[in-house]
Amino acid sequence: MGYPNLFSPMTLRSTTVRNRLVVPAMVTHFGDTDGRVSDSLCDYLEERARGGFGIVVTENLGVHASGRIVPRMVMVDDDRCVPGLSRVANAIKRHGAVAIGQINHCGRQNKSKVTGQPLLAPSAIPCPVMREMPRALERDEILMLQDAYADAAVRLQEAGFDGTEIHAAHGYLAASFLSAYSNRREDEYGGNLENRLRFLAGIVDRIRSRTDDNFLLFVRTSVEEFVPGGIDTEQTKFIGRALASRGVDVLSLSVGVYESYAQLTMVSGEPEGPWLRRMAQVRAEVPVPVVGVGRIRRLEVAQDAIASGQVDFVAIGRGSITNPYLARLLPKTPSGVVSCMSCNICLGRSAAPGMTCPVNPFVGRERLLSGMKSAASGTIDILGGGFAALTAAWLAAKRGAKVQLVADAGELGGMQSWRSRVPGQAEYRTTCIALVQRAAQEGVRFVLPDEYSASACADLVWKVQRWEPVARPENPQVPAYTSYEVLRGNPRGMPGRLLVVADDLSGVDAALLLADQGHSVTLRSPARDIAVDAHPGFRVLNRGLLERRGAKIETGVASETLLDTKGFDALVVGRLYPTDERAPDDWVCDFAVVAQAHLDDAYEPGVLTRCVYSAVELAWMNSIETADQAGGRK
């Protein structure tokens, strides 16, 4: 299908935006530890601009030292920051995208060990997630911080940005003033909504008075906070009208605060664009363009949202991480384009040194990939078809090696292809197919196991091993299976009443798959919750899916009763207690062929990502080796 509305231009003040696709602000952890711009951050943003997005918004930039959100947050609190920010602006604009710098202060949503200063907030109410008491701001401090936001905007203009976006969503400082949930002040900055808007309005007025007429001003706010007394759609309409009257050019709508953040960072299996209806209500009553967001993965959804008048721009965040060229590739070649599977590794692993992605392991390393030359030679056989194997095959072939990958068609994608059979996770199959096509486009040859002959003796042989951490019971009283056997589809004719015992994602998904097949399922976890190794969104999602299928869920079960199978016909066991990848008994390999290296596969997205990144290093460093250089197979 065509996307006429999505790829139509729009003019904001004197700036023409080439299409309606936006890369929203997302924390990357690519900044330097001293708060300056890094090469990785420039490369990351430039690649999305080169990929055809109309607007590229930086991650939130710190306006004051007390508002640092992460240790690697890029700061814009000093004139010495301008040269580095100029690099970012130029990197975005040289490819025709509009460059917007987002400015922010953490407020109460942090720890003082990160900021190095006491937390500041409108009221002395701790964030339930961070659990640290902030100090209520004095009036002179409020004025100082309003000036800090304006100073930051002026620096962005000096650096060459087309505009700035005030982050007044997700519970940060400006948002916490707006919301009665976090603002209990009794002065002119608290009470009714007009008063609670005063802090943000002061920032807007200062920026408009100190920047050029053509400098764009966006505000991002939450259309719903999903907490008692929080911002809702009706309040957002009032806020939007008030901001537009003060010279705001674009309203960027999102949802949630820290304690309801799963509503924003939705996972695979949840609907696309669930908040567009609320955003449409706001858009109908504000006189400025609106940006919508919320797990919008497909351009069809984005096109419909704009064509129907729900929003004017669509922000595609995680999808732009996975594939920065969505805007250029999808309209021309919709099949085979690598797409996001909403595993949330990029956003759900804040402790990582930098943003990571199991589908695009070159995020933040774009220069390395674009500058790659064909330097490899020889032949490589890869036995197995997991994500890491497909990634290694693609990269080795891209470097010039002749690669053949040996796997059954149903096993391409490895353990993630198993996951695609779980209710709600079919989109994983789309990504598996795209990874296969990406490898094939570089010349990788796919061979069925029955057709493979090890005697052909390639220069290098790598084989896949899977991480299957399960607790295998001794002398079970009923037939026993592992969660991975269920997910792979090996057990046939399983009896009706099933006990699934696991604390991990594989166990939960096995229980869901069995319940969907009509079995009577009880899921027991020794932990306080289910799927404790996975993103919290999967816990919420799978609880609902299991309950709708009549499954029972028991958590915090004592070890002495955990494996009690009385009243059940069969037992399915996953992981019972946290473990790591070092236990050799947890690794399984289907190939007896001697190989020079292993490519790892895993079910849980976090471990899977580590496997993929290790595969990249292997393919990058060793694809030019021959068997003689490697010193023989092992």
What is the compact description of this entry?
The chain has 634 residues and is an alpha/beta fold. The chain is built from 23 helices and 24 strands.
**Major sheet strand order:** 3-4-6-9-10-11-12-13
Give the beta-strand count. Answer: 24
| Overall 3D form | globular
The major β-sheet equals: 8 strands, parallel, barrel
Helix content: 25-40%
Protein structure class: alpha/beta
Walk me through this protein's architecture:
By secondary structure, the chain is of the alpha/beta class. The protein has 23 helices and 24 strands. The strands form five sheets. The chain has an eight-stranded parallel β-barrel, surrounded by seven helices. Strands 14, 15, 16, 17, 23 and 24 form a six-stranded mixed beta sheet that branches. Helix 10 (299-307) links the parallel strand 12 and strand 13.
Brief descriptors of the model:
eight-stranded parallel barrel, alpha/beta, globular, disordered C terminus, 634 residues, six-stranded mixed beta sheet, 24 strands, 23 helices
Mind sketching the topology for me?
Elements (H helix, E strand, L loop, with lengths): L9 E3 L2 E3 L3 E3 L15 H12 L4 E3 L3 E2 L19 H12 L4 E7 L7 H4 L4 E2 L13 E2 L2 H21 L3 E6 L4 H6 L14 H4 L1 H13 L5 E9 L8 H13 L4 E6 L20 H8 L6 E3 L6 H9 L5 E3 L2 H5 L3 H4 L15 H4 L17 H5 L8 E5 L3 H12 L3 E5 L8 H5 L7 H15 L3 E3 L12 E8 L12 E3 H6 L8 E5 L3 H12 L3 E6 L10 H13 L3 E4 L3 H4 L7 E4 L13 E2 L8 E5 L3 H18 L4 H4 L4
Parallel strand pairs: 3-4, 3-13, 4-6, 5-6, 6-9, 7-8, 9-10, 10-11, 11-12, 12-13, 14-15, 14-17, 15-16, 17-24, 18-22, 19-20, 19-22, 20-21
Antiparallel strand pairs: 1-2, 17-23
Helix pairs in contact: 1-2, 2-4, 4-7, 8-9, 15-17, 15-22, 19-20
